[in-house]
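Objective 1b: paired records.
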Amino acid sequence: MSNTFGKESSMGAGALEVRELTKSYGGKAAVDGLSFKVGAGRVTGFLGPNGAGKTTTMRMLLGLVAPDAGHAWVGGRPYSHLRHPMREVGAVLDDRAAHPGRTARGHLWALASSNRIPRRRVGEVLEITGLAGVAHKRVGGFSLGMSQRLAVAVALLGDPGVLMLDEPVNGLDPEGVRWIRDLMKGLAAEGRTVFVSSHLMSEMEMTADHLVVVGRGRLIADVSMREFIARSSRNAVKVRSPQAARLVGELRRAGGHVTADDEGTLLVTGLDSERVAEAAAGCGALLHELSVQRASLEEAFMELTGQSVDYRGTMPPPG
């Protein structure tokens, strides 16, 4: 999606930054000394359980909530200091923000006029978001998915260098989910900063390059997607060998943890596939299978954030 918007981001690395950010409600910390930076040129996923402080953090970055302590900056400045906010930051926080009596085009025209954005841009974002065919329909009759597309159109209206999207796939059908995924990746490829929160782990795994993970208002991880998943204990090497008993001893001596299923297939953790192959060669074990079992983002996320969940359901008793 090269040059979709006609320019590249003017904000470099660290376009978004929070430093020792703190916010409490009713004596309970929603955000607690949180610090991280979000750089340009990649999609950064913002993950955490419900109540982790993600939306509050985004609202403080956008100047909608005042922090109790710390700083939230866009391009090295508070949002309130930006001269032309919609041209620098586009955000999706509320997909029902438009007046229900306005048409999609009318809503976008009003925003363009009040922010000195050329009116031709209205037609461009209607095309980009797939709403050109319903531009003259009143927003009150929009489905959740159409409202979400309109919210994205508003975020893109000023052709900003920074995009902040809170649950952007909410209400979208499969085609819409793929569209927003490609859009975010295309924006990042143009050098823009894309910061997105979502509870859909499978979608984030296909979209994000980097992750900021929070729990109970505190930073848990700030790493690449690859490194985050690699840290999971769910990663394993699957092995089948007619000399399994001999191989198990060799793998354990090498520092691996080995379990076996009923069919004799071994699952090895603590060693990568190269070390497993070397152990097999060292003890003369023939390998019928050697494959890497990679954890999913969901598995890695659940493992890392399990102690940070405030609301945990239970399974009902059988029968």
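Objective 1b, second protein:
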Amino acid sequence: MEIIPLARRRKLRTWSHGKGPSELKVHRRSGKAISLLDLASNDYLGLSRHPDVIEAARTSIDADGVGAGASPLVTGHRPIHQELEEALADWLSQESVLLFPSGFQANLAAVIAITDRHTTVLADRLIHHSLLLGVKASGAKLKRFAHNDLNDLEKHLKICRNHQTNKSPLVLTESLFSMEGTSPAIKEIAELCDKYGAQLIVDEAHSLGTMGIQGKGLCYELAVQTTILSGTFGKAFGSGGAFLAGSKKLKEQLLQTSGAFKYSTALAPPLAAAALASLKLIKKNPTWGEKLQQRAEKWRSRLSIEGWSRPLGNGPILPLIIGSDEKTLFYQHQLEKSGLLSVAIRPPTVPERTSRLRIALRQNLPKGTLKRLINALKAQ
């Protein structure tokens, strides 16, 4: 068993909802639960506790039970799944959508579907672990390019062209990086892929609902054509599960060949129903994401004024880079003493010497939260 330094050991804590819509209670071994204002979760729009979303899940449970009971190709595919797939395809102007029980599974399936040992995959240096495991499982050759660096990506694409095989290279990126808060120049990346004959997978897990026109993500806003678009319901949609969007041909290929799809119990119907209810709410409130970004801009400016390095990007993820593991844990504990929750993110999740507090803005945070955060960060 690998020996993990004390400052990097993870602890599994137990949580329950607090009184307010943006509060969580952490349960201690002593039996005492402490309520904290949640600045850590990815429930950006607060939809996991929205009454419409909860009611949709309850109605689905009454109709279909809790679990799907089988894989989609046996008896697991229900009308709510088809309805959600069609609604998402229409919303994102995609030919088709296929649902998965988790984003990790969806990303594995996406990479494996279009690569093999003859494929070269060019992945952003900070790409999500699930996509990297997809590359490993496919046997493809992995090359990393510097984070959001178009010049480095093009250099690798030129090398691929000079060593051309019968397999197109694949580029992997995210529209909003979950620990950095940054977004790549997706349109320019797509243009490079077109220029050099590469395929493109974009993971929009953290941007759907929060970024792009009407919350449709950056690929939609910039009219970027992807080979596969990956998205999840466990973030801004406040539910669970995930999907891949692309051509009808791709969907058929996944349906016939993807082990991650075929050999897992289908997405629980109540989660699909909740995701569909969230989609309807996002469509009815097309400025939610824009308002969240405006709030994020205010937070970034204030943190910069207070002496912190301005968090990069313009979405709801604001990393406060601290450096050492121990100091980051110290700040986490300081925030918890002040009733705020922001988890210390340490290597290997982030690069060495870049441990950080990851601040996740949520729509339902009460007024005065930023002031509380600033005061807590100042406390020694």
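The mean pLDDT is 95. The domain at 6-38+325-378 is CATH 3.90.1150.10 (Aspartate Aminotransferase, domain 1).
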